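Why do we care about 3D structure at all? Because function follows from shape, and shape follows, mostly, from sequence. That is the central idea of this module. The next example makes it concrete: a single protein chain, its amino acid sequence, and then its structure expressed as tokens.
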Amino acid sequence: MKGDSLRTGILLSVASTIVLILLIEGLASLLMSAWVAKRTVYMREESHSQYDAELGWSHRPGLRIESMYGDKTRFTTNAQGFRARENFAKGVPPGKHRVVALGDSFTMGYGVGDESTYPSQMQALCPVLQTVNMGQGGYGADQAYLWYKRDGVKLDANVLLFAVVAEDFYRMSGDSFIGYGKPVPFNQSRLRSALGVSVVALAGPAANLVLAALCAIPLRFGAAETFGAAYAEILSYVVVYNCVLAIFNLIPIPPLDGSNVVYGLLPPRQQWAWRSYQQYGPFLLLALLLFGYRFLSLLVFQPALAIARLLAPGIF
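And the structure:
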């Protein structure tokens, strides 16, 4: 009995060390991303953004922020949610040529005042133009297109100017903004509901359990001993470690899968709030790994061992 307890303790220590090693590289980059997000995205972008059920986020209409990025950098949105000081009628004004500019923060004019965005500069240099600024910080090419299909088509236009950078196409594969956890990119727009996010998030832990179950078959029926004790011991560790990873990934702390499980179960407005807290996930996760051994032992390692022994009775 004493030998079994010692062996179990050693196993738990080794498992926790392996989990820490697996996460250390990701935590380093995530901590840096969280620090950047804390200083930029949260303080700047969210000050003029709101939750949007179709686009993820969009401008708050009728907004005016003096000195948004510093002295003399006013940020204004009209009632239509465009960065502009006036509203636009459906028709093009007589003697004008309307240009609707789509894009991300470069089009929106991150860091500059209303009159210094490139759509405003185009209009100032060529008075015959009327430009409509439909830029939004953090948008991928897909979001910019969907925003135009919803609100931009309500305006007549002579030219549609779609300004993109390479990052806009990378963002199409993600489901969140800069600084937020994106452990497994997938196209959320193909899901029928937000509940699908939870199902996708459960795929990782489920894969761990399936692998554990497959490796447990030779152990359960005694076939592993045919290839020697070392082979059986390796299979035992594979079963246990996969069970540990499955349970550990269900902890609802970003960027673990459990955070996306919770996200998919929340109402839309609470989903937006949940995303805004994801930047703090790496700090919480690091604190848990460093100081939460008792918690991990109770809620992760012990259930994982119970599942492993259910799959392969007599293991450890």
